[in-house]
Amino acid sequence: xxxxxxxxxxxxxxxxxxxxxxxxxxxxxxxxxxxxxxxxxxxxxxxxxxxxxxxxxxxxxxxxxxxxxxxxxxxxxxxxxxxxxxxxxxxxxxxxxxxxxxxxxxxxxxxxxxxxxxxxxxxxxxxxxxxxxxxxxxxxxxxxxxxxxxxxxxxxxxxxxxxxxxxxxxxxxxxxxxxxxxxxxxxxxxxxxxxxxxxxxxxxxxxxxxxxxxxxxxxxxxxxxxxxxxxxxxxxxxxxxx
Length: 242
What we know:
alpha+beta
């Protein structure tokens, strides 16, 4: 939807991106990564994991301008969402724009961080979250909450980058786009929704690789300690050496 000034106002939808592939299929109909046979038959844990990805307007971690989320349920990606975010400081660096294609005019009418994330509060509370290079995405999340003086949600989180490094050590690189190439998946890198969906799809493949019953079961099999966000602070996601 476009207003009288030609600006996008439907912030739950994707905006035109200079690298967009208009023939790209929708994730909701593509990413159905099932474990062998029925998940419930093989004891799949009936828990929900949500992959998350943030894009930022500039070098400040509290400048989130987009968030993407992808839900994993019973061994497949079942839902993908993207929301644009209006940063409190509307300063967009040329480098960041070149990476993700989001410009100030795309977000000038979008809600700010608290309102965007409140929409997903019930999904996120108590969930297992996952991000590729979680140190970055969760620092964006924390910095944005700190900026608005909001408390942290209660959740556990995993880093799919650390998981990939442990599970696929033979890969020359564990960047998200190269993992997608290895898995034969096409996507638009640095689109928050698509990055989250690929993170989720990769996590499902990693669970299969280590014969985990669910993505949430991977840490116990690879020596990973999940990270935590709580009202009192946070603890990073780590892997023991070896």
